[in-house]
Amino acid sequence: MAHLAEQTVAPAERVHPVPADFAQKTNLDPAGYLAMRQEAETDPVAFWAREGQRLDWIEPYTKVKDTSFDLQDFRIKWYEDGVLNVAANCLDRHLKTRGDKPAIIWEADDPSKSRTLTYRDLFEEVCRFANVLKDLGVERGDRVTLYLPMIPEAAVAMLACARIGAIHSVVFAGFSPEALAGRLIDCGSQVIVTADGGVRGGKSVPLKANVDRACEQEGVDVHSVLVIRRTDDPVKMVEGRDHWLEDCAALVSAECPAVPMGAEDPLFILYTSGSTGKPKGVLHTSGGYLVWAAMTHEYAFDLKEDDVYWCSADIGWVTGHSYIVYGPLANGATTVMFEGVPTWPDASRFWQVVDKHQVSTFYTAPTAIRALMREGDAPVQATSRKSLRLLGTVGEPINPEAWEWYYRTVGEARCPIVDTWWQTETGGTMMMPIPGTTDQKPGAASHPFFGVTPALLDAEGRELTGAAEGNLVIRDSWPGQMRTVYGDHQRFIDTYFSAYPGNYFTGDGCRRDADGFYWITGRVDDVLNVSGHRMGTAEIESALVAHPAVAEAAVVGYPHDLKGQGIYAYVTLKAGQEGDDDLRRGLIRHVRAEIGPIAILDKVQFAPGLPKTRSGKIMRRILRKIAENSIDSLGDTSTLADPGVVDELIAHRCSDI
Ligand code: 6R9
Q1: Measured from the CB, is residue 534 less than 6 Å from ligand 1?
Q2: Where on the chain is N6-acetyllysine found, per UniProt (predicted)?
Q3: Measured from the CB, is residue 323 less than 6 Å from ligand 1?
């Protein structure tokens, strides 16, 4: 009868029980899960004191949790008086028992190339790299910017910074020189680690040339550029500033002590888009972050000692930080790092890599799943995938159709799917089904992780109980929480704690169903999620108005089959400019050059005017409705200064380009 039900029930309403085989071998049975949830709620200090023990501490902590979101008495401190080194936790402590275990399996863009680094290899490379950084004058607390392709040296560089107490700021290698320059200036970084070039999908990317251009920008003050050889493309080396890693590494010792760091000392900065202005430097610290990354990695992925775990994210995003590098390595796991793209040389690539390295756990983004689903089942079925036992997704809501395809076609209904909801700000996953323990509903982020206290609030801040939909906040701190916006603590408070005082506001909307499952409905602020990449509409708008032909611009998202959200730009031109296809293409190129290839406008509508209130505020709500073609439900337009503008916008709405 189950079969009949599946035919008649819409995918979103289905419940998949835990696959029976999986349940037998899971690390956490339902009773154990409930007991942990309860303890985290009733006695958080005891709970987190014990969880903190998963790390090696140089000086043990006596204070576990000192947190308050009350603006009069605001503080977020975890394991405050503990002393540790993050790199030593990811490397040194594994050497005795796991020295010969693969730490990183690197799969190159070229399918014939891969490389394995054992824990001992990785330890040695990190020590050398750390000594190279020291030779370049890097000291504890200095910011080091990493602009790198997906090569093992990216993880090495991160861990080398952590080893000597430097703060890394990884900038996604798809960002433009302008975006890189902005991030260098914001954190006052004087050292960059890059490569001559990167390779993705058979094409090379001129990373070093981008760094050179970023360094020419006003305000950038870089004294050293460390260059890793990857493509052998010719690059310009600036005397005194630029150094090849291989030359420097040959001169240094292979021994480098790990610097004792306070639990609350910064580990890294990672820039992310918000609803206003320039990207924020999200700052994570050492102790709480690593406890969170390691613990969530263990439970979300039901980690086993012999797992080959692969997260297909890029190191330039938080998922790469927590679930390629810090979580897995702190747990002594084998982590796969992939340089290429899912569809090159063909749409079987992911699954070929799974077979080649016998991957047991695979974690990717809905946008990749949708892109592969479009290619049909054959490229999947051409591979075995027998090694897989668990699948995960992250980055945006997964539509139930894509979930079902991932579950049935890729995982052959044998592998639970862990849909992990979290953010750059949260350090690690906050909601997900616990594999093998909780039922699965396709598309639901499901349940809060241990110690996470979600609540749904209405626009006035009243808590909604039972089945409801509202703004998702978190009531109390968790160890992996960001601690500040680098250099601008007030912005941290204003962005996350002022909308609903006493709560961390996520910026996401969320529904809780009658069974208590949580479903993320998407951003409720002006942040877009395009193919799992976060972008502020304000960032794209300021890139547009920097174009000489543009007077004003407003950008909104609209539902897009493949990307999740597409970018729709309304552009008002300066007098005398003509809005034709040439200019449209020119604007698309311009935004791509300003921000990077992740920012490709899907639709550009030239508009003589934008809908504004009498006080001059653009009414984005209306622009969103027009973009998604919901013209019948525009809502109240009576507060518009000039309602005629709307008719004009509807008349010239962009169809697909
Ligand atoms: C880890 C990461 C965060 C935003 C977040 C939300 C969306 C992430 C999701 C999800 C639904 C999931 N998001 N995971 N929405 N289900 N499983 O992606 O961090 O780049 O900072 O993006 O992504 O809207 O607020 P980040």
Answers
A1: yes
A2: 617
A3: no
Tell the residue nearest (CA) to atom 19 of ligand 1: 423
Give the count of alpha carbons within 13 A of 296, CB side only. 35
Residue among 151, 160, 138 nearest 87 (CA):
160
Please state the domain count of the chain. 1
Kindly report the CATH number assigned to the domain that includes residue 601.
Answer: 3.30.300.30
Is 531 annotated to bind a ligand? Reply is: yes
CB hemisphere CA count around 20 (13 angstroms): 0
Q: What spacing in Å lies between the alpha carbon of 395 and ligand 1's midpoint?
A: 4
> Which domain covers residue 542, as residue numbers?
531-652
Burial of 246 (0-12, 13-18, 19+ CB in 10 A): exposed
Does residue 142 form part of some domain? no
- What is the SS3 assignment for 43? coil
395 is in an annotated binding site: yes
Question: Is the shortest distance between the CB of 319 and ligand 1 below 6 Å?
Answer: yes
| Residue 405 in marked binding region | no
- Look at residue 640 in the predicted model and tell me its pLDDT: 81
Q: What is the pLDDT of residue 7?
A: 37
Q: What are phi and psi of 591, to 5 degrees?
A: -65, -40
What residues are paired with 552 via a beta bridge? 572
Look at residue 589 and tell me if it is in a domain. yes
Question: Per residue in 586-621, is it b (16+ CB within 10 Å) or e — as a string?
Answer: ebbebbbebbbebbbbbbbbbbeebbbeeeeebbbe
Q: Whose CA is nearest to atom 8 of ligand 1?
A: 395
Q: Return all residues near 37 (Cβ < 8 A) that are at least 6 apart.
A: 450
DSSP state of 612: B
> What's the gap in Å between 523 CA and the centre of ligand 1?
9
| Separation between Cα atoms, residue 298 and residue 609, nearest integer Å | 53
Question: Tokens 């797992």 — which residue?
Answer: 307
Please answer whether residues 422 and 518 qualify as being in contact, where contact means their C-beta atoms are separated by less than 8 angstroms. no
User: 504 near 497, Cβ under 8 Å?
Assistant: yes
pLDDT at 1: 26
Ranges of beta strands (E only) in 108-251 are: 114-118, 143-147, 167-170, 191-195, 198-200, 203-205, 224-228, 242-244
Does 321 carry a binding-site annotation? Answer: no
Q: What are phi and psi of 465, to 5 degrees?
A: -110, 165
Peptide bond into 102 cis (omega under 30): no
In this structure, is residue 13 part of a structural domain? no
Dig out the tokens for 505 from the structure: 């506001």
Task: Name the stretches of the chain with pLDDT < 70.
Answer: 1-13, 277, 656-657
Q: Is residue 164 part of a domain?
A: no
Q: How many CB atoms lie within 10 A of CB 514?
A: 7
**Whole-angstrom distance, CA of residue 471 vs CA of residue 460:** 10
Structure tokens, 527: 């942040």
pLDDT at residue 13, rounded to an integer: 66
End-to-end CA distance of the chain: 46
